[in-house]
Every structure is written in structure tokens, then in C-alpha cells.
Specification:
The complex is a heterodimer of chains A (about 1100) and B (about 550). Helices cover about 5% and strands about 45% of the residues of chain A. Chain A contains 9 helices and 57 strands. Helix content of chain B is about 50%, strand content about 5%. Chain B contains 18 helices and 8 strands. In chain B, strands 1-3 form a two-stranded antiparallel sheet. A two-stranded antiparallel sheet of chain B has the order 2-8. Chain B has a two-stranded antiparallel sheet with strand order 4-7. In chain B, α14 (about 405-430) packs antiparallel against α15. The longest helix of chain B is centred in the first third of the chain and has 28 residues, at about 90-115. Chain B is globular, with a radius of gyration of 27 Å. Chain B starts with a helix and ends in a 20-residue tail after the last helix. In chain B, about 60% of the residues are buried. The model of chain B has no long low-confidence stretch (mean pLDDT about 95). Classes of the chains: A mainly beta (about 1100), B mainly alpha (about 550).
Chain lengths: ~1100, ~550
């Protein structure tokens, strides 16, 4: 019976269509008149349509009453063509504006932007490529509102921290989840050692993703957008679609794109050094660190000298200098000369091909970067191969898969704070050498023991040239990502999709100090660190798109099932002393001891569903829900459900507003809740076997190791556990509007959100007297409130092809610790150096404020001055001395295009965000910049006399405080219990407000007619510059420190700069051709 | 269509199977495969012993790092000069953290597990260590958490207890320890005991001696119990240098087993400490010394105590602050005052020698200190020695009339101190201090003793104790505050324009700032110059 009815319907349909129709044909091409294969041609308001063939041609039988054809093609703006008398309709589609309407959302689903009730930003891959920036995250800076990006270092391949809408977790991961072609992509920063006390500026693992293969990036900022991704969604999701994973049809049967970039990199800005005084103190020459010594010839006021004994005059290893003098003069370029010009070579080839049912893409890329550190000691090489394809089998099953492999190798100098025990940093004195140190031409290697030779004893600092050549770290990563997807349309409104993927890598790090370094007691040491990471993700989704009986209502829904497993296995070894000077291999050490290891495995089972209900084409409501079962929580607590609801209302459509002034208006609102589980093994205390403190498992000072004289030892971990952990939840409320004015010349997108994470699973800091450092439990609340604005202005757009576009992003986020546990006043994020400056959480304060030591003051706030020396007095209790969170950030992208030319400039401004800067402190304290060049005078620190024992002001007979009149020399003003070296922490915190020209590029697209006779389909040549200029307005003048740096990579404690290398600037030339 | 329905049905069934049946097993993976939830006592004990020794001793940011400077044995070019410190000082925070979070928590575990197992010897040893650690902590910090400390989540923010109340309880704890040590133990303590190698009778002696030493510290308070002291003197006490309460390090580099002070003085080519010229001059019997108590009486232990890197006649590369022959150092109180104090003297300064850290015996030939010298760090961190216990008994006999002969005890104490140096010397293959040299020195000291009044006698006992304690700063720091002896170096009275003292002598240490910040039940920060500990009656 059913069958009969179906036949009747078909017959009826045939009859109807046969009654009145005509045939329209034509050719769909792009602007270059290249045929577009597989473009959709649809009669508006009907199901009648077809796709273009290999030559871009189509033929379509259209009903007689058809009025409009809609022509669309991925990556191009759709066009509506009114049907006239002619039966030939050729259409030229233009590229680009497509991203306005279709956005990629959770689970990689492409959705119509207007239906979405939350903020999503799509960034096309082209904005991240060929801009002289090999790191796709850094290339994203200032281009999307609501995100905060900070690079850790100028070491090639080093980590980049990104947060979306602030931190949602007290101590856990706060960076977004990356999802590449449907599979989570781990972005951990692994490394052999803690970056304060040694080691290198390791990369974050998103660096394995080939930027040349990025088709688009979609930033899902809020919980509502991301909730379907489950537990990790509370920090936002970045959904990356790759060229090989997308399955876009090629323009021709075979399309080849070649892109090539070559950039040079150099130090963006050096401090402005003084060249009047050499090493010493109090205007006397000494073989000392600080340049507070005698004036060079020509500087008046104090006695000087022409020459000094050569530094190696007493060194028996250098008889050639015995009794020799060396000129006493300034070497103005003795810092610049340490660094070299770096090079970035980035080449990529993409091949696409296919037909109506099958497509295939492959990208092969090679990046070779050599950084600014001497002796070619820093490099990042990334080679990757990605392939992917999609096909539809005859039985209707869709099958697809991707495979990508990335091999990367990062090498760099040893970093960290040089004063850490056992460490030796390349940067130890590099930025503030004595002004009379000719760093470049000084012998750097001892001819007998091959160790470092420097102006200072080996025990103080290693020569930077020696350090670059002989100390260092490397990180070798092999990463495989493979996905398989299959789908079938069960009927015209039910389809099933299955996606399975494995994302795995191995990382091998090595760190070494050769014999004769300051590091590792000068005997040589090699640390090996091996990490294996594996993530398996499986998603089964059943889609429903029933035709409802109402013309006004539409429904789209799906249910899904998710399995996820993550395994990490890490083991480190330490070998010391080294035997052969040259061989970096554990076999080349006298003895090898375990240096700590870690294994965790976690699993999640998730079930989720979403329904989107549309009313007419202006009101949409989306409801989602997900339940997770986690392996990391106890049986009774491991199942948790969380919902999200969002709505979009296009009021211009609903109210029938058709005005040139307000062309489009949409309101959106959403509410979502996202649950999160704990880390594995967080329910019970365990012992650590044979771990000495040198393995970095406890406080950090090198102590003895076990086994001790052959006896093994175990200790209870200093973490106390709560066996009844419950899931934590982030709830978020978001409202926003998208408005377009003046015929869409002005587009404004504004979002306000507030989120709060409650009942956090986190480490509650315990005082040591409890017997433990931390208690892993549920407590507290962390909130974010913020505004994101994207403003697009298109002031000029002429028919002659001149187009000027200004895109402004504004990001403001307030990230506040609302509460900790009752009675708890503070949590320490991580101790640094036993707790001088330290990042803490305090109720009512912003996330991760810096607590540090301060100078004593009286009740009126006057500094107390020690009458014995005119210097400051330390206060007994520390205070909050800095807030690393920027107040707001503005990004400005100007794009001017005319004919084939396009000029693009990205400027940004970051307001606030404090940094504890070692470099600024040491530049001042060592007296090397122009800041304290004027020093032939004494100073009086404003304040009142105080008693260093009682910390009370000293009063005269009348009981009044006594203003300080004790003078200090300029030298002591910056080296002593005063303002720079040896000062209290508060004096080394600087405001990070920065103005920056982040990116400029000038490109030219060669016109098609130039290329007619060549096999080249399109050709683009561009020049790009990066970080061309910056100004940190509140740093000490002449220091030129770049606040956009962070010693701790992508860790939660931010706002620290412990002798980081200076930031860099790049200039590049880029070529892209298609064939 | 039927086929499709079948697909859907089977998919749902498979899904359901995974979710329902698989669930329990699939998610049941939350036990850490690499780290155990329990450990044998024989592994916990050595770790806690090493941690305790490290936290109190010299070299690992232990308390002695600061207190050896403040007891004027060593000088450091650091903020410890001029008695400066604060609650962020690494040398304050590290011992505090290590003792509470590592040593005392593990001791709590040993007592808990040992009681369950009836391994009474482990329990007794843990109680002795606990008493020793806590009494020392009260000595330097005064009031500290004790009764509710180390209870983890059950009591996350313990209040601070009165030092005197803690001492009272520790006396009882030591009695309990002795009782446990005298029981039979389910599991014997063997070589995992890094202090006494499982010798329980030595632990009993240590318990009694620690208790007696504690009585000496509180002798000016009403906690002093003459009857108990007299009873203790009849118990088993330390009776030879073999009974010394000390922890031996080794010479292995990886795993790092060397004495931490050796590593810092010899292995890094960047020695951390200078020898206090005051201490050096006093041991020399130098007339220039501010303290002339042993004037004209050079101490035969000098070459065992210090190692001079300068070769005979070698001119230091750089200007220096203090040099006597090949002995080179800086003065206490000279930080940023003495223009020559800041020059790097890594290869010229005199470093700590064989006796305190397993370094080099000084044969007056010089040469840069390096990691292959002397015992290569295979030496002991001495905590409470037999000699120190005799000095304490001499003090008690002299001041409290315990019935023992103070002079005999003083003599035995010095004999034990010399024997200890000779013990280390023989381990290192260095020459022994001859009996004649020792006797000549000792008899001269005893002659001073015999000639002196009670105050002089007390000063002599405590000054000799100070010399014997070289390398462990805690005990002398207590003595200086308790008795006023040994006399300390006074930078304001040395006629040296480059030394000065602006701060008061610290009568206690500040608490770990971090702990005060985190703990709502913590008191305010201590003012080191003013806030005394309970037994400090002077």
C-alpha cells in the first residue's frame, strides 16, 4: 500500500512538472573566468536544482513560474539572479564574503550565521598565512574580539598562550579546546623542566598543525557555542577545518596551489645603552657586573683611565694575555653583536582534485626557521604531509578520511633564571653586559677544558656564545592524526554520521649543559624526557530534519554518542657527568638516574542531543543537552548533565524593516552550563618512590636523591585528596546583537557575557603546617564578565575597485575570583623561588594577581627610610603588587585594495596588565642604559626616617615624622635596598600597556590576462612585516622591554619575565600560485 | 527500508551495550598504575630521616645555612649579613615546608602504620625524630602548630600552639618513644635506618639524651624538672662518638648522595660560604680577635675545619676584604659597605674543610676546591653529638648542681670533639691530631676553666661547644640567645669602617610568609629582633 502511494506521488509530480517548464542553461565561473565545478544552481523557494559540470556548465529544467535562481558555491558569495526572458544565464561568483553567512559551529557543523544565538568568529586560513608568522595562534592576535594571546619567547617554535573570555579554572587548563576536523587536538606544553629554574622555551603542541593546511578557524567563545564538546568546552573551543579535511571540490579537475614565504627576523628593539661608564662601582673600575665604574675618556667629572688589565691576564690557559692591557672604552654594539639575523622559509604545496562524487586533497609543507640566537643555535623545523578525501559510494554511503603526519624539531638555548641553582641561562648577562665588555670578540672557550670563558667567573655566568653553542635543548615531535568518517542518509530526513579519529604524538626532549658550563655544577648533564600522547575520539550522530506540516516552522535535530580516551605517558632521565664533550646522548654520561615520570589515562562517555526550531526566517531557538560519564570521578559522582539554550531573532526581518540606514538587525541570547571532571587519579593519596628533590617533584631546591647509599626511600605526596569530588560547572549567560547600517557598509557585532565557574575542582592551598601543600577538592567561584565588539567599516568601495575596510576588535574582560572556601583567604597558583613574587587567587581580586614583597611605609603611606644609609626598609608582610590581566585590548585591521593590490595593516593596543620584569630590573640595576646615565649626583629618596627593627617611623621631640635627608648615590639608588637589584618586588612590576604595529602586508594579484598563456591560474605576490614597532609606554624609558612575553609559556601564572630574550620583528616576501 | 531499520536498530543496540554494560568496566581505570597508595616503613623511614637532616643542617637551604652565619661560624654575601631575613627567605621557607609537609607527615604515617602493624621500633624511632624536629622548631620559631598539625584535610588550618606547652608534651612523647623502643617489634629496623643502622639501644640513648638536652634549654624556666633530670642521668645516655645522632651522606653524584654543603662549596666552583674571620681568629688564638678568650692558643683542628684555596704566596686575582696569609674571607656586617667585599673570590676564598662537610684537609698547599677532593662529600650531617651532650651536661652540672662533675664533663666533651675530628680524618686518610697536641690545647683550656669564675667557666664550655658544633648552626644559635655565650662578633666595635650593624640580634626566626597568608588561624608575622621564644629569659 505504501509503495503504491509513493508511486502515485511520483507520477503526480512528473505530470505537474511536465505541464509547464522551460530549460535554463549557462556557465558559472569565478572572477578570473575559471569555471566553477559543482556549483549549486537552485530555483528559489523550491527543491529544483542542479550542480555545474567539469566545465562549469549547467542545464536545469525550471518551472514556468520560477522567478529567481540562487547560485552558490563554497567559498564564494551566493547570488540571486532574476530570471528574465533569456534561457541562458551565466553567472560570475566572487570570492570571500561567504564567511558572513555560513559559520562552522560545534561538531564542525556548518550553520547559517543568522540562526545562531551566540557569538562565533570565523577566520579564514588566508588571514593566518603568509604574514611572516609561522605560529597560527600568534597570527590570530588582534583579529578576533574576546581572545587574549601572548607569546612566550622569541625562541622559534616556543609556546603561545591563548585564552578566550578569561580563565574559568582556578588552577586547571584555561586554554581553549582545539578541534581539528572533528578530533580534539592536544595543545599541551611538555618539557623536561620547569621554565623558571632551567630548560627551554618549549612549544605548545598546536605548533604541530600545519598553518598552510588551515582552511578556516572558528572561535566558539561561549559555553553555549561549545557545550556539545563536553567537559573541556567551558574554556571555549577553536574549531579548525583543514583543507584536506574539508572535502571542498576543486575548481578544476586538478588544482595545485604553491605557496612560498621567505622572512628575515631580527631583534625588534634593543635597550638604548649608555656608553659613558664601564664596569665597576662608585666610579671605580672593577671587574664587576654593573657598569657603575669609571667614566670612559671624554666623560667629565671623574678620573678615568685609558686601559685596564686584560680580563684573562691571570688565566694560565691564555698565556697570550699575560701582562696585557686592553683599552678601556665602550663597545656600543656589544649586545646587538651577540644576536644574528634569523630566517624563516615556509613552502607549501596543495593539490586538490575530484569529480561529482569524490574529492581529494593533499598538502605538503615545510617550514625551516632559524632564530636570532648566535651560532644558529635556535631553530624550528616542521615538515608535514596531510591527505584527505571524501566519496559517495553507489549504495549511498558517504566515506571519508584524513591522515596527517607532522615531524617537528625545535632547538634553542637554555633559559630560565640564571640564579637558579644548577642553571645557566643564555640570557644571564647578555642584555646587560659591562659597557666595556667586547662580548663579540672575547674568547669564549677555554682551550684546555673546553669550558666557558667570560668576563665573569664561570660560576656566575656562562658566556652567551659558548652557551648558545654548547648548552641547549631540543624537542623532537612526531605527530599522527587520522580520521575516518562514514555516513548514510537513511531517508530524506534521517541521516547517520560516524566519525572516529586518533590523534597521537611522541615528543622527545633533551636538555644539556656541557662540562664547563655554569649549569649542572660544571660537570655536564643531559636530561632526556619522553612523552607519548594519544587521544581517541568517537562520535556517532543521528540527524533528523523532518518536514513539518507548518510552513512557518522548521526543525533540525540530532542525537549523538561520544567516546573519548586520553593517555599520556612521560618518563624523564638524568645523566651526569658527561664524558665526551661533544656527544649529547645519555650513553655519554657516567650514571643515569630516573628524573620523574607520569602516566595517566582517562575516559569519557558522552550522550548529547540538539534541536533547532525555526519560526519563519527570523526566530530560531536551539536547545542542547549533554550527559557525561567520566572515569576520573567516583562512581556516585561521575555522571553529570548540562543543558544549553540559545535564540536568535532577526528583528529587521520580523518587523519588516527595510531601510538603507539599518540594513540588518539581529538579537541573540544564550544560556549554557558546562560540566567538567577532575584530572585522573585525583581521589587518593599516593607515595613517590626514590624521588629526590632534584627530580623536581617537590620544592625545587636540589637536595639529595634516593637511593641514598643504596637505600630506597618513599614519601607521601604532599597533596591531600577528597574522595568525594563532584563535577564542576561553568554557567554562562550571553546577549549580543549584530547590526548592519548604510547598506551593510557598517557592521557592528557586540556581545556581553558573564560566566561563572562554581564548585571548582582545584587545589586548595594548605599551609605547610597542615602537613600538606594542597587539598584537591571542590570549592569557590571564578567569574568573567566582558564585552566583545567587532566593528567593520567599509568607508570607501568604488566601482573602480577601490575598497577600504577597517575592522576593529575590542576586548574587555574582568576575571574575578568571587570566592574561595569559607575562611580561606588565598590560594597560591604556583610558588616561584620559595615565594617572593607569586601568583595568587584572593576573593574579590582578579585572577592570578601577583603577590610580592614591599617596602615599609608609615600610616600615611610615606616610605620609611633607614637613617643609616638612606635606603628603604622592608615591610614584613607582602602585598598584592601587580595584576597581569590587561584592562582591555583593541585591534585594528585596515585593508585597502585596489585592482590587484591590497594593503593590510594590523595595529593593536593593550591597556594594562602588569609584568614582573627581570630584564627591566637588571638594566636599571646594572646601570647600562641611558636611564641612569646621569649619575654624577646624589639623590634623596622621598620618605621619612624609620627604625629598621620596629618598622615604626622615627619621630622628633614634637612627635612628628622626620623627612629623609640622607643622600644615596645613583649607583645605590638602583643597586641596594632601593629600586632595582636587591629591591623589594613592588619596584620591579611594570604596567604592560603597549601600542604595536603588529602586521603589515602589501600584496598584488596578477590579473588573469597576464597569466593566460601560462599554466598559472592565479598568482599573488606579497610583502609582509610583523611586529614592526611597539612602545610599552610605562616601562622605564630606554629599556624597550616588550611586555608581550612570558617566561612560563602557556601556564596559568602569567606576568613574569625572567630574563627573556628580546622580541623579534620579521620582514617577508610571499608568493602564492595556483595551477 | 527494512535493511535500514535493521541498521538503526543494531546501532542503537550496540550503543546501548557500550553505554550500559561497558560503562562500569570502561570507566573503571582511575587507579594510578605508577604510584602506590601504600609504602613499606622501611622506605618511608630513610626518606624522612634525610629530609629532617637536610632541613636542619647545612647546605640544602636548611636552617643552619642562616644560623651558622648568625652564630658567626660562617659569613655569606647575602641578606643574612647584618641579621636581615624575612618570611620569604628561602632558607626560612624551605626548612619550614620540608619539616611540616615531608618529614613530619611521613613520621605521622610511620607512627600510624607502625602502630597498626605493631612495628614498635619504627614507632619509637619516629617519635624520637618527631620530638627532635619539633623541639628544634620551637627553639627557633617559638609558638608553632603542634597539637593539630599534620592532620591534612581533617584540620587544614591548624592554630599555633604555645612553645612551652609543646615542650611539655614532647617530654611525654620521648618517654613513650623509649617505651616503644623497648617493646619487641613486628618488623625489625635494619639498614633502612640511615642514622643508627637499626641499633635500637642507640635510639634509646638518643631519646634520653635529646630529652636531657631539652631540659638544659629550659633550665631557666619552670619547665625544668630537677627530679626528672636526675632520673635521666641514671638512664642510658649517649656514651661514645658512635652514639652521635647524625646522618651519613655518600659520594655518588647520580643519584646525588653527597653532603649538600660539600656540593655547594666544592662541586660548583662557586663556594657559597666564607669562614667568619672572627671564628677563624678566635680558633687561631689571634690577639686581634675581638674575643680573646683563647688568646695565644691555636686550635689544632684548624686544618680540618677550613681549606685555603690560595697557594702559598699566591696573590689573589682581585681585591679582597680580609686576608691573613692564605686565609681569605669577608667580614660579617659588610654587605654593600666594604668596597672589596663584592669581588668574586670563588678561587681564592677559604672554604669549609674536611670535618664539617667531607671536604679537603688543609695541607697548606692550596689549589681550587673541586668535587674530587677529600671525602667527596661522603660525610655526616651532625645533629646532636655525644660531645654536644657532654657540653650540655657540663652546663647543667655547673648551673643546676645535677651532681655531676662539670669539669670532668667539659674535659670529656672536648675529648669527644677531638675524637670526632680524628674519626673523620681517618676516614679521609688525613693525619690524626696527635694526642699530645690535643692534650696541650685541652689542658690550656682547662687551666683557663680552673682559673675562671662560674661565668667564665660557662663561657668556656659554651665557646668550646660552639667550636665543636661547626657546621651545624642551630645549637649555637640557641646557646647565644639562652646564655649569651659564645660572645658574638660586634661589627660596631671592631674599628672597621666597612662593617656595621643596624639590626637587632634576631631572637627568633620569622614564619614562612606563605603559610601566614594562607592560614586564617595564623598569628601575625614575628618580629625577629623582638619576639623571643619561651625559654629565652635573657
Amino acid at each position: 500500500m505504501k509503495q503504491l502511494l509513493l508511486t502515485a506521488q511520483i507520477v503526480l509530480l512528473m505530470v505537474c512538472t511536465a505541464m509547464a517548464q522551460r530549460t535554463v542553461s549557462g556557465k558559472i565561473t569565478d572572477a578570473a573566468r575559471e569555471p566553477l565545478i559543482g556549483a549549486n544552481v537552485l530555483v528559489q523557494g523550491t527543491d529544483v536544482g542542479t550542480v555545474t559540470d567539469y566545465d562549469g556548465n549547467y542545464t536545469l529544467a525550471v518551472p514556468a513560474d520560477a522567478k529567481v535562481l540562487v547560485v552558490s558555491y563554497t567559498g564564494y558569495a551566493s547570488q540571486e539572479i532574476a530570471l528574465g526572458a533569456s534561457n541562458v544565464v551565466d553567472v560570475v561568483l566572487t570570492e570571500g564574503i561567504i564567511l558572513e553567512t555560513a559559520v562552522v559551529t560545534a561538531l564542525g557543523l556548518g550553520r547559517d550565521r543568522q540562526k545562531i544565538g551566540y557569538a562565533v568568529d570565523n577566520v579564514g586560513g588566508e588571514k593566518l598565512q603568509q604574514v611572516s608568522e609561522p605560529d597560527p595562534l600568534r597570527a590570530l592576535s588582534a583579529k578576533v574580539p574576546g581572545i587574549n594571546i601572548i607569546g612566550s619567547s622569541s625562541v622559534p617554535g616556543s609556546a603561545t598562550r591563548i585564552t578566550i573570555r578569561g580563565n574559568t579554572s582556578f588552577l586547571g587548563e584555561n586554554q581553549p579546546l582545539f578541534v581539528v576536523d572533528g578530533i580534539p587536538y592536544d595543545n599541551s606544553t611538555n618539557g623536561a623542566s620547569f621554565q623558571l629554574t632551567g630548560g627551554g622555551a618549549y612549544g605548545s603542541r598546536i605548533a604541530d598543525l600545519d598553518p598552510n593546511n588551515i582552511e578556516s578557524m572558528s572561535v566558539l567563545k561561549g559555553s553555549a557555542a561549545a557545550a556539545l564538546y563536553g567537559s573541556r568546552a567551558s574554556r571555549g573551543v577553536i574549531v579548525v577545518t583543514t583543507k584536506t579535511g574539508k572535502g571542498r571540490k576543486a575548481n578544476k579537475g586538478l588544482e595545485v596551489t604553491l605557496s612560498s614565504s621567505y622572512s628575515l627576523e631580527e631583534i625588534a628593539s634593543l635597550p638604548e645603552y649608555q656608553n659613558k661608564y664601564g664596569a665597576g662601582t662608585d666610579f671605580n673600575y672593577q671587574q664587576a657586573n654593573g657598569s657603575w665604574g669609571a667614566a670612559f675618556n671624554g666623560a667629565a667629572g671623574y678620573p678615568t683611565r685609558d686601559s685596564i688589565p686584560h680580563w684573562l691576564t691571570n688565566n694560565p690557559r691564555f698565556p697570550q694575555y699575560f701582562g696585557k692591557n686592553t683599552p678601556y672604552r665602550a663597545y656600543p654594539n656589544n649586545v646587538k653583536g651577540v644576536f644574528q639575523t634569523g630566517v624563516v622559509w615556509d613552502n607549501s604545496l596543495t593539490i586538490r582534485g575530484g569529480d561529482q562524487t569524490t574529492n581529494f586533497a593533499a598538502t605538503v609543507s615545510s617550514l625551516n626557521q632559524e632564530g636570532i640566537f648566535p651560532e644558529g643555535s635556535s631553530a624550528f623545523d616542521r615538515n608535514s604531509l596531510s591527505i584527505g578525501g571524501q566519496t559517495k559510494l553507489l549504495n549511498g554511503i558517504r566515506l571519508g578520511g584524513t591522515f596527517s603526519y607532522t615531524a617537528s624539531l625545535q632547538t634553542g638555548p637554555q633559559g630560565g633564571a640564571n640564579n637558579a641553582i644548577g642553571n645557566a641561562s643564555f640570557m644571564s648577562r647578555t642584555m646587560f653586559p659591562g659597557r666595556n665588555w667586547d662580548q663579540e670578540n672575547f674568547p669564549f672557550q677555554d682551550p684546555v677544558d673546553q669550558g666557558s670563558v667570560y668576563f665573569l667567573d664561570r660560576a656566575q655566568a656562562t658566556n652567551p656564545f659558548w652557551s648558545a653553542r654548547f648548552d641547549g635543548f631540543s624537542s623532537t615531535v612526531d605527530r599522527f592524526v587520522t580520521t575516518l568518517n562514514a555516513g548514510i542518509d537513511i531517508n530524506d530526513w534521517i541521516s547517520v554520521d560516524y566519525n572516529l579519529g586518533v590523534n597521537a604524538y611522541t615528543q622527545r626532549d633533551q636538555e644539556w649543559f656541557r662540562p664547563g658550563s655554569r649549569g649542572a655544577n660544571g660537570v655536564g648533564q643531559i636530561i632526556d624526557n619522553d612523552v607519548t600522547w594519544q587521544e581517541i575520539e568517537s562520535n556517532l550522530i543521528v540527524n533528523f530534519q523532518p518536514k513539518l506540516n507548518s510552513n512557518d516552522l522548521t526543525l533540525r535535530a540530532f542525537v549523538g554518542h561520544n567516546l573519548n580516551q586520553r593517555t599520556i605517558d612521560q618518563q624523564s632521565f638524568l645523566g651526569t657527568p658527561m664524558i665526551d664533550f661533544n656527544i649529547i646522548d645519555l650513553d655519554n654520561t657516567q650514571s643515569v638516574v630516573p628524573n620523574g615520570g607520569n602516566y595517566t589515562r582517562r575516559r569519557i562517555i558522552g550522550a548529547y542531543a540538539e534541536a533547532e526550531l525555526g519560526y519563519r526566517d527570523y526566530l530560531y531557538l536551539t536547545v542542547t543537552g549533554r550527559n557525561d560519564w567520566s572515569s576520573t570521578l567516583s562512581k556516585g559522582n561521575n555522571s553529570y548533565f548540562y543543558p544549553a539554550v540559545s535564540s536568535s531573532f532577526i528583528f529587521t526581518e520580523a518587523l519588516g524593516i527595510k531601510s538603507n540606514l539599518l540594513s540588518y538587525g539581529k538579537l541573540r541570547a544564550s544560556y549554557a552550563r558546562v560540566g567538567n571532571d577532575a584530572n585522573p587519579y585525583s581521589l587518593a593519596a599516593t607515595y613517590r618512590i626514590n624521588i629526590g628533590e632534584s627530580a623536581g617533584s617537590t620544592s625545587g631546591v636540589r637536595d639529595i636523591d634516593f637511593p641514598l647509599n643504596g637505600v630506597s626511600g618513599s614519601t607521601l605526596l604532599n597533596t591531600e585528596f577528597d574522595p568525594n569530588l563532584t563535577p564542576e560547572f561553568t554557567t554562562e549567560f550571553e546577549v549580543g546583537t549584530e547590526l548592519q547600517f548604510f547598506n551593510r557598509r557598517v557592521k557592528l557585532d557586540v556581545t556581553y557575557y558573564q560566566n561563572s565557574t562554581t564548585n571548582q575542582i582545584a587545589l586548595l592551598s594548605l599551609p605547610s603546617v597542615s602537613g600538606f601543600d594542597v587539598l584537591f577538592t571542590n570549592f569557590g567561584e571564578l567569574s568573567n564578565k566582558g564585552i566583545e565588539v567587532g566593528l567593520n567599516l567599509n568607508p570607501i568601495s568604488t566601482r573602480g575597485g577601490f575598497d577600504w575596510n577597517i575592522y576593529t576588535t575590542f576586548t574587555k574582560n574582568k576575571n574575578i575570583v568571587e570566592s574561595l572556601r569559607e575562611g580561606v583567604e588565598e590560594i597560591v597558583i604556583r610558588n616561584l623561588f620559595g615565594g617572593s613574587v607569586v601568583s595568587v587567587l584572593r576573593p574579590g581580586e582578579p585572577y592570578g594577581v601577583i603577590r610580592g614583597s614591599v617596602s615599609a611605609r608609615d600610616e600615611d603611606g610615606n616610605l620609611l627610610i633607614d637613617p643609616s644609609n638612606g635606603q628603604l626598609i622592608n615591610a614584613p608582610n607582602p602585598e598584592i603588587v601587580g595584576d597581569p590581566n590587561p584592562d582591555f585590548q583593541v585591534g585594528l585591521t585596515n585593508t585597502i585594495s585596489y585592482k590587484g593590490f591590497s594593503l593590510n595593516a594590523v595595529l593593536d593596543y593593550r591597556h594594562g596588565g602588569d609584568i614582573y620584569s627581570y630584564t627591566a630590573q637588571f638594566l636599571l640595576g646594572r646601570g647600562v642604559t641611558k636611564y641612569n646615565e646621569n649619575r654624577e649626583l646624589n639623590a634623596v629618596i622621598p620618605g621619612v626616617y624609620g627604625d629598621p627593627n620596629t618598622l615604626e617611623p622615627i619621630r622628633d621631640e614634637a612627635g612628628n615624622v622626620i623627612p629623609n635627608q640622607t643622600m644615596v648615590e645613583v649607583n645605590d639608588l638602583w643597586f641596594g635596598n632601593t629600586f632595582a637589584i636587591n629591591s623589594q618586588d613592588e619596584w620591579n612590576i611594570f604596567d604592560g600597556t603597549t601600542i604595536r604595529i603588529r602586521e603589515v602586508s602589501l600584496g598584488y594579484d596578477f590579473p588573469a590576462k597576464f597569466l593566460d598563456k601560462t599554466p598559472i591560474g592565479s598568482l599573488r605576490l606579497s610583502f609582509s612585516g610583523r611586529n614592526l614597532w611597539y612602545k610599552a609606554v610605562n616601562f622605564p624609558k630606554y629599556s624597550n622591554v616588550d611586555p608581550e612575553t612570558s617566561t612560563f609559556g602557556n601556564a596559568n601564572f602569567q606576568g613574569y619575565e625572567f630574563n627573556n630574550a628580546p622580541s623579534i620583528r620579521r620582514y617577508g616576501v610571499n608568493l602564492r600560485a595556483t595551477f | 527500508m527494512k535493511q535500514y531499520l535493521f541498521y538503526i536498530k543494531s546501532t542503537i543496540v550496540v550503543l546501548a551495550l557500550i553505554i550500559l554494560s561497558g560503562c562500569s568496566d570502561y570507566l573503571d581505570i582511575n587507579d594510578d598504575p605508577n604510584n602506590p597508595t601504600s609504602a613499606p616503613l622501611s622506605q618511608i623511614l630513610p626518606y624522612t630521616q634525610a629530609t629532617t637532616a637536610g632541613a636542619l643542617g647545612l647546605g640544602t637551604a636548611g636552617l643552619s645555612d642562616v644560623l651558622a652565619v648568625w652564630s658567626h661560624q660562617l659569613v655569606q654575601r647575602s641578606n643574612h649579613d647584618d641579621y636581615a631575613t624575612d618570611g620569604n627567605d628561602f632558607n626560612i621557607t624551605e626548612p619550614w615546608d620540608k619539616l611540616y609537609t615531608v618529614a613530619l607527615t611521613d613520621l605521622r604515617e610511620i607512627i600510624r602504620i607502625g602502630t597498626e602493624q605493631e612495628s614498635w621500633h619504627y614507632v619509637g624511632i619516629a617519635q624520637v625524630l618527631r620530638a627532635y624536629a619539633f623541639s628544634t622548631m620551637v627553639d627557633v620559631w617559638g609558638d608553632i602548630p603542634y597539637f593539630n598539625a599534620n592532620q591534612g584535610a581533617a584540620n587544614p588550618f591548624p592554630a599555633f600552639d604555645n612553645g612551652k606547652a609543646i615542650y611539655t608534651d614532647l617530654f611525654l612523647l620521648l618517654d613513650e618513644a623509649v617505651a616503644n623502643l623497648k617493646k619487641s617489634s613486628a618488623r625489625p629496623v635494619t639498614s633502612d635506618d640511615l642514622i643508627y643502622n637499626g641499633n635500637i639501644s642507640r635510639w634509646i640513648k638518643a631519646a634520653n639524651t635529646i630529652k636531657l638536652n631539652m631540659y638544659n634549654k629550659v633550665r631557666l624556666t619552670d619547665l625544668y624538672n630537677a627530679a626528672d633530670v636526675s632520673k635521666l642521668l641514671g638512664e642510658e645516655l649517649m656514651s661514645s662518638i658512635g652514639d652521635d645522632f647524625e646522618l651519613f651522606y655518600g659520594s655518588s653524584i647520580a643519584p646525588e648522595n653527597r653532603h649538600p654543603a660539600f656540593v655547594r662549596e666544592y662541586a660548583r666552583s662557586d663556594p657559597d660560604w666564607y669562614i667568619s674571620p672572627y671564628f677563624y681568629q678566635l680558633m687561631q688564638g689571634n690577639a686581634e680577635c675581638q674575643n680573646t678568650i683563647f688568646h695565644g692558643l691555636p686550635d689544632p683542628r684548624l686544618p680540618y675545619y677550613f681549606y685555603k684555596q690560595l697557594r702559598p704566596g699566591q696573590v689573589p686575582e682581585r681585591p679582597f676584604a680580609y686576608k691573613d696569609g692564605e686565609f681569605l674571607s669577608i667580614w660579617f656586617g659588610s654587605l654593600n659597605r666594604d668596597p672589596n667585599e663584592g669581588f668574586d673570590q670563588s678561587l681564592a676564598q677559604t672554604v669549609i674543610g674536611l670535618y664539617p662537610a667531607g671536604g679537603q684537609f688543609d695541607t697548606n698547599t692550596g689549589g681550587a676546591a673541586n668535587a674530587n677532593m677529600g671525602l667527596k662529600g661522603a660525610s655526616a650531617q651532625r645533629l646532636l653529638t655525644y660531645a654536644a651532650s657532654l657540653f650540655a651536661r657540663a652546663e647543667l652540672a655547673l648551673t643546676k648542681g645535677t651532681g655531676e662533675n662539670a669539669r670532668n664533663l667539659f674535659e670529656s666533651a672536648m675529648t669527644a670533639a677531638f675524637a670526632k675530628v680524628n674519626e673523620v680524618a681517618s676516614a679521609a686518610g688525613a693525619p690524626q691530631i696527635s694526642a699530645s697536641a690535643r692534650d696541650a690545647y685541652m689542658s690550656a683550656v682547662l687551666a683557663l676553666y680552673d682559673a675562671g669564675d662560674d661565668t667564665k667557666k660557662l663561657e668556656l664550655i659554651l665557646t668550646q661547644k660552639w667550636i665543636a658544633e661547626f657546621g651545624y648552626g642551630v645549637e649555637t644559635y640557641n646557646d647565644i640567645r639562652r646564655v649569651g655565650f659564645p660572645k658574638i662578633f660586634l661589627p660596631e666595635e671592631d674599628n672597621n669602617q666597612f662593617t656595621s650593624q643596624t639590626r637587632l640580634y634576631p631572637v627568633s626566626l620569622p614564619y614562612n610568609t606563605n603559610d601566614l597568608q594562607i592560614n586564617p588561624n595564623a598569628p601575625g608575622q614575628r618580629n625577629s629582633g623582638i619576639d623571643r621564644v619561651f625559654w629565652d629569659a635573657n
